Amino acid sequence: MKPIFIPHSDYQAFVLLHLRSSYGSGVVLISKDWPLGRQTLDDRSFNGHDFALRRLFSSGAIPRDPASLFCSYLLLLLTNPHMGITEWINEMKRTPIYAILSGFPLDYLPGVGTFYGFSRRL
């Protein structure tokens, strides 16, 4: 099964919808969160690198958007670079804004194997 590629505009709509449904109109972002939101919401094409991601993930059984996995890995490095993948998944469960900014529904986070498979392909 080929991976699903989500257009950036769909990702932005997803983030806004889930922020509103998870936090209501009282979303509070501390100053530390603004750079994260800006880096993930501005442009998920990663300055043309989405083509490379598409080429790497053009086959296989990974039904996840590679840009979402890349974005999540980037958030991990920006927020908790010392943390492992297993703990990062737990952190996304505890802190939903990380899952939302990554582009994952809160009830359907990727597993550890998905992240390790992604890392191998990179």
Structure description:
- This protein is 60% helix and 0% strand.
- With 122 residues, it is mainly α.
- Helix 1 packs antiparallel against helix 6 (96-102).
- The chain has one domain (8-121).
- It is globular.
- It has helices at residues 8-23, 33-41, 50-56, 66-79, 85-94, 96-102, 112-121.
- The protein contains seven helices and no strands.
Major pleated sheet? none
- Roughly how many Å apart are the termini? 18 Å
Q: Rounded to an integer, what's the Rg over CA atoms?
A: 14 Å
Strand elements, count: 0
Q: Give the helix level as a range of percent.
A: 55-70%
Structural class label? mainly alpha
| Order of SSEs | HHHHHHH
Provide a count of the helices.
7
Structure, briefly:
With 122 residues, the chain is an all-alpha fold.
List keywords for this structure.
122 residues, mainly alpha, 7 helices
